[in-house]
């Protein structure tokens, strides 16, 4: 058996073993970002785990069977195209960044209009946001934030997450007075930003109805997808490498098949 056939068979067996825990365990969605917000990571792990297609690849490579190898190569090519399309889509929809720096703050704040139209439509639709807002109000990510800081400077200089920046406090432009990260004093002349009138010190309300909260969620989602893109790139490179080796195994199978036919013709 040729070296390329051996490598293809071994790689597919390893892919099968690695894919089992991925398929069983999956990628659990983050409670604070909702199922819709974690879909990027789930797509990447689903696509990576489906890359095994191990049975035809291992069997075809081990037994030098053209039909099985051809089926395997077709499935691999389709998967590579799928991953490449998903990667391009993820880069396009996450390219716009709605973040902006705030003077005297270690964290950034976020504008909803600064993100891609696809993300804004997907997350910002009334039915989707109603579910996400309920999930956010039932979570404790803002409550935990309130217990992490003893002084205003500690809070203002920290790099909190986009979701915390958008949902757990009012926008800086509103001029609210700091008491703790989730309790703020209403200013006499609040800013013109519509979110300024939506802030509420009630832990179940906070800024969950604000555009800044939607923007913070998109900021978190963008970061998650950017991390998932790294996984997709690695998976794509590995798949292309395995595909090229499998092509060599397929050529070996063709050569051996021609040799068998030649021997049968002269026996």
TrEMBL record:
GO CC, alphabetical: membrane
Keywords: Membrane, Transmembrane, Transmembrane helix
Keyword Transmembrane helix recorded: yes
Pfam families from the UniProt entry: Tetraspanin
Compartment(s) of residence: Membrane
Entry's family note: Belongs to the tetraspanin (TM4SF) family.
PANTHER family in the cross-refs: TETRASPANIN-8-RELATED (PTHR32191)
Protein name, entry field: Tetraspanin-2
Lineage of the organism: Eukaryota, Viridiplantae, Streptophyta, Embryophyta, Tracheophyta
């Amino acid at each position: 058996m040729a070296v390329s056939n051996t490598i293809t068979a071994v790689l597919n067996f390893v892919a099968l073993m690695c894919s089992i825990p991925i398929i069983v365990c999956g990628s659990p969605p983050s409670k604070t970002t909702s199922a819709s917000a974690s879909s990027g990571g789930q797509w990447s792990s689903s696509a990576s785990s489906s890359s095994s297609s191990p049975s035809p690849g291992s069997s075809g490579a081990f037994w030098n069977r053209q039909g099985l190898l051809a089926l395997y190569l077709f499935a691999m090519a389709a998967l590579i195209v799928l991953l490449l399309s998903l990667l391009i889509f993820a880069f396009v929809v996450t390219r716009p960044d709605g973040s902006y720096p705030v003077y005297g703050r270690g964290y950034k704040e976020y504008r909803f209009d600064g993100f891609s139209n696809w993300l804004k439509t997907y997350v910002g639709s009334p039915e989707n946001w109603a579910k996400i807002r309920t999930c956010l109000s039932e979570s404790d990510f803002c409550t935990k934030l309130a217990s992490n800081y003893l002084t205003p400077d500690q809070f203002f200089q920290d790099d909190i997450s986009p979701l915390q920046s958008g949902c757990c406090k009012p926008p800086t432009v509103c001029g609210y007075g700091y008491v703790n990260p989730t309790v703020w004093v209403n200013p006499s002349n609040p800013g013109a930003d519509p979110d300024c009138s939506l802030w509420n010190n009630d832990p179940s309300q906070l800024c969950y109805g604000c555009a800044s909260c939607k923007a913070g969620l998109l900021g978190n989602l963008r970061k998650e997808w950017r991390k998932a893109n790294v996984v997709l790139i690695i998976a794509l490179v590995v798949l292309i490498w395995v595909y090229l080796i499998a092509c060599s195994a397929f050529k070996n199978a063709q050569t051996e098949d021609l040799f068998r036919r030649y021997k049968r013709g002269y026996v």
